[in-house]
Amino acid sequence: MRIVMLGTGHATVTKCYNTCYAYEEDGRSFLVDAGGGNGILSQLEKAGLELADMEGMFITHAHTDHVLGAVWIIRMVAASMHRGQRSRPFTVYANEKVMRVLGTIADMCLPAPYLKQFGEPLRFVTLQHGDEFDVLSMRWTAFDIESEKEPQMGYRAVLANGTVIGCTGDEPAHAVNDPYLTGVDWLLTEAFCLSEDEETFHPHAKNHSTVKEAAASAQRLGCKRVLLYHTEDATLPTRRQAYTAEARTAYDGEIFVPDDLETIEV
Ligand SMILES: [Zn+2]
């Protein structure tokens, strides 16, 4: 199993794509978030991932930088179903708010023949806190991160080899989610900027955290590895080195600060 990072930036970045990624295993894939638009299609193309091989997607929440790319994925998948090129299901997993947003935009913006694919074989599974499902060779548990800004889900995924991955969505790990995140092999979490750049990027005003705070959460939770994303894009050339150095001051485990299109074995 590998994670293909399709984007690593926050909502309004222009020098990289919004944070989203795909799990890829034996030629099949599963998307987590889709960024803010049609750019998801070029990122998939650059990564060599075909929509025809995609089993579905999980959308954490309905903010523009996570959900609008999903409209494009749905459009493309529904089109291939309409043309008779795909009969295999494609499943969208998300909370009720995301489903409402996707349904409303699709109703108003997509051609009627595409909408006919909705339900079957284009499936929508509305998730409640604690719901479980299987995708690729993983067992997923979705949990409500209890965000104060937007209904949002994180997840805990257990791989066939026992590896456990925890994702906090695009907010810091909240203590209420500790049962899902404590001791995971991989913690995927946002880190908006370096501590020294707080006054420039104002992470806390947006319910985001500094690198040091994200690293401290990973340390508190006893995670073996931390992967930091959803960052500013003003420091991309030095991001990996600078973020890793700051995270090291608060965290003992392995630190990953990937670039767009980087692949990580998990
Ligand atoms: Zn975001």
UniProtKB/TrEMBL annotation:
This is Metal-dependent hydrolase, beta-lactamase superfamily III. It comes from the Bacteria. Residues 17-204 form the Metallo-beta-lactamase domain. One of its GO terms (molecular function) is 3'-tRNA processing endoribonuclease activity. Keywords: Endonuclease, Hydrolase, Nuclease.
